[in-house]
Fold each of these.
Amino acid sequence: MTNKLNLNNLTKSEEDYLKAIFQLLIEDASVKVGNNQLADYLKVSPASTNNMIKKLKAKGYVVSEKYGKLDLTERGKSVAVRLIRKHRLWETFLCNYLNFTWDEVHDVAEQLEHIKSRKLIDELDRFMDFPKKDPHGEMIPNANGEYSIIPKITLSSLSEGDVCQLVAVNDGSVHFLKYVSEIGLVLSSEIKILEVREFDKSIRIKFDNTIETVTRKFADNVFVNKVV
Amino acid sequence: MTNKLNLNNLTKSEEDYLKAIFQLLIEDASVKVGNNQLADYLKVSPASTNNMIKKLKAKGYVVSEKYGKLDLTERGKSVAVRLIRKHRLWETFLCNYLNFTWDEVHDVAEQLEHIKSRKLIDELDRFMDFPKKDPHGEMIPNANGEYSIIPKITLSSLSEGDVCQLVAVNDGSVHFLKYVSEIGLVLSSEIKILEVREFDKSIRIKFDNTIETVTRKFADNVFVNKVV
DNA sequence: TTAATTTGTTAGTCATAACTAACTTTTTTA
DNA sequence: TAAAAAAGTTAGTTATGACTAACAAATTAA
């Protein structure tokens, strides 16, 4: 009964876990990423993540000590970045060539990112002329896994009178993405903060002659460049 | 312990089985398609196919009697045709837009055909302007699952002096497809049968000022339109 | 600093889909 | 038509990746 470790060909699940750990690590760089948090993020039980973490440790993708925080090895990171590259390239393709909207791309890209073919993704990249950003404004890693992380500030971090430009939106929720489109915001929209209400931190914003009030939660998911 | 039957969302495996049965049924319309034959085709054990057949029968995709031949219900056929549509559209995309060659497309298309998104495939179809044939010359079913079956004759069925045009090639083997490309045959190539050798049924053919001898096995996998 | 809460782990179960080995039915052929 | 071969079936096992329930460790709060 020798336990064969499939070192090279990762399953869809293994890939999903590695990507999730990576996302959690960059989301909150300094804070501990733990087992339950991962379970929560992936919407599975803590027992499931615990199990998978063991396997990924044995395969050399993850490091952690018992009851300790999770981290990825270089190999683990490399897998995660390649998945993100695939995900974002597919999203770009779906939006720019196949008439998908922001809120429609995520689910399909989640499937497409697991297709195993180096040539496929590199040719898709070339076909689209090596796009730098995906439709939500996020950076696309290149074929060598290199990418720049632009420090992101949220709309919620600004103050009355500030003017900013929408550079990216969090792509985690279909409802949120639909909402963003519906009120008329697009990448590069110039947004002026008219008022930040002390009571509930809701924000009155103006863009393209539209005035809207958005919640703190909404503003937390909108990433901007401060202009003024 | 109520046995929940996942009637709508088929697994990758279930889809593979339905497609395989469909392919075997159209390959040899009149001949019985049996359990062992299916196992052989899918390169799994007869026990595995037997098991899966039971499940697909319970779900209403397959019909067969104990020890009898296999057949698909309308629903089963519909699933298979949609898979073939997806497979062929992806192959077309890979060849025409992403620089894939004949022999490279199959494996990737096998993965891509399982992506679940109606919009994805219909938009891909539109993007390529509704192609009628895939790169190997096979018909692509339309969005309603309609397609025409062109009765195919093989190069091996012709006689000395006949002239034909290459209309399709069997896409089952990478080695075969590489071979076809290497000797210089492409879709629409005009081929003249110079000689059929009685000894081993090998055939001397001429096309584009090239003269080649091909085996019976090779000629069985080349589909043509007889011109003269 | 002890108790409560949160977080992490283990053990055992289930479904899917593969496998081998043994057995039964059907078909072929001698 | 009876024996041999081929085809089909069943039983029992394995790996993956979920799950629940029970338990242990670590952290937080009283």
Amino acid sequence: MSKSNNVYKEAYNRALRLVEETRRLPSEPELGALLGVSRTTVRAILARMEETGLILWNKRDKTVLRAPQHRDFFPDEETDTLSQIIERNFMRRLLAGGAEAGMQINELEMAREIGVGTTSLREFLIRFSRFGLIEKRRNSHWVLKGFTRAFALELTEIREMFELRSAAAFCRLPPGNPAWAELDGLEVEHRELEAAIAERFTAFSELDERFHRLVHRASHNRFIVDFYDVIAMIFHYHYQWNKVGERQRNTVALSEHLAYIAALKSRDPARVEAACRKHLESARQTLLASIPDCGQAEADNSAK
Amino acid sequence: MSKSNNVYKEAYNRALRLVEETRRLPSEPELGALLGVSRTTVRAILARMEETGLILWNKRDKTVLRAPQHRDFFPDEETDTLSQIIERNFMRRLLAGGAEAGMQINELEMAREIGVGTTSLREFLIRFSRFGLIEKRRNSHWVLKGFTRAFALELTEIREMFELRSAAAFCRLPPGNPAWAELDGLEVEHRELEAAIAERFTAFSELDERFHRLVHRASHNRFIVDFYDVIAMIFHYHYQWNKVGERQRNTVALSEHLAYIAALKSRDPARVEAACRKHLESARQTLLASIPDCGQAEADNSAK
DNA sequence: AAATTGTTTTTTCACGATAAAAGACATTAC
DNA sequence: GTAATGTCTTTTATCGTGAAAAAACAATTT
């Protein structure tokens, strides 16, 4: 099957939004920059838009003829990257299904089950291995380490080290640094969400990620910044399968964020540390509370 | 060409060492365990040994007929893993050649130059990306970030955080923990090397790695333990192309290690921290001294 | 002349295929 | 009856291939 054209389809859907808003589309290179794809893909999109009667395309002239209907869009399933498909499948097995530690992963079988080639699955597993949940035996299978209490503790330990350091670095940023403006923006978004917490309390996790990434970036350390990928991945999937008490959790986290932001703006290192510690502590508790295998931790940890 | 039989060749060479030392070889499963390969490979090895007249093989009986000659061994080039070949090639370009930051990596071209398939190279790059030296543009090329002063500073920053924490954890290990015995063993090896520093001063880096890995393991944190891979990789290649002042460096490091070991054995946290800090500081200086682009650091760091 | 469009070349992504290596099962030897 | 050997099956490592997407180059247009 070689390669799916999801890049084209996904960009096409986004291009439809542009069609909704304008009478005539900009030049090909401009569209490419706007959609984040190459001109080759832009031209494929324009060609189809002409075919379906959405636009009239003649060289520089790209006039919108009609508003896009619902059926003009490609279905969501077709716009996903292969690695996104694999990732979702894999995480579902890992978190939802009964994936015990020590279980081994069969590339061929798993690729067949998900319906992808072995190469793609292999590449996913290699990329995924940095999250510390799987390990490769040379010339042999992968071993699942399991989403255990020990894992959560190790993850949060690093997170706390990194975030405390990043927060301290944030305080030291000169006043002119754009990060301060970003922080102000995030504060506003927090207040807006606080006011509307009843309706859109699920929007929090996206805001949460942006806030923590901003703090981590202040460290100016690629290893710290990159490590947030691990945290984001875990929290993302974790919350997707664990909705109990979500609203309560988010309300608490939101107010902790606001205190944390206020502390950062005060530039008082002691206050920042306290606010950061408090928030991380409750994040840790939330994560731990959701892991079934209690008592397992000591065993895992002392097994060297 | 599908797959090279380097596993077989490498295991064969190691099996020759056993032939040198024994009159008759053990059972197939035992040999497999000894060489770390499957019985399939063991049997292939035995088959060849019989063919070349090294042994007489009849079911359980595997009698050694003659001592292996030099020409019985497979040449070293043939025993390397593909990923080792790729790694060496890549690191040579990165450290020795003029690999400026921002330069882009072409999978196809590089694969051709090294003489491997694109899949293998891709997988290597994905694995390598966690070292923070390259970055992928989606649906496009990889970008080289360069082995810059900024990189070295970011790397050592994390290293120091992790090692200080691990060393502190080491102090708290109960007296019965096998790590203490391992530490004693390493101390002996250090003393032996100290006595013979004149002859085998290049053997230090291997000892260095084992020592630091032992310390890191005390953290009981997979992210800390895994991070040492990054450090080991950098130091390994770095020293391979930078032999100036090696002996002096190693002599200093050796005595610092001994002080560090003594501190750990004293279990005095303050003393451990001091010894650890001192050693890490000189390791950092050594690394920084070897990077050509001075003054670059500020520019890199403040570029957000 | 600079930017845009038209055309061609290259590169990435993903697959199936194949030999090496591992693993499973059946048989024999002690 | 346990542990070895003999045989067969499955899985991994690697490549070549082909379509999607990017990038480079050439020809227009304003």
